[in-house]
Design a protein that fits this description.
Elements lengths: L2 H23 L2 H32 L1
Helix pairs in contact: 1-2
């Protein structure tokens, strides 16, 4: 696990909190920010997966 995976997990967690808070309070902007943060987290996870695959390929 590299730092991209850690950052991705943090983005997804904060995004989930923002999205839930936005839904509860009716704040559509906060809800949208949460969805964006979650998407950022997914992208970082993907980047981390690509880096991991590249590292494994270099070892073979």
């Amino acid at each position: 696990m590299d730092k991209e995976h850690l950052k991705g997990a943090a983005d997804k967690a904060s995004g989930a909190v923002k999205e839930a808070a936005g839904k509860v309070t009716g704040n559509k902007k906060l809800e949208a920010e949460g969805k964006i943060d979650k998407a950022k987290g997914e992208a970082r996870d993907f980047i981390g997966d690509v880096k991991d695959a590249a590292k494994k390929a270099d070892k073979h």
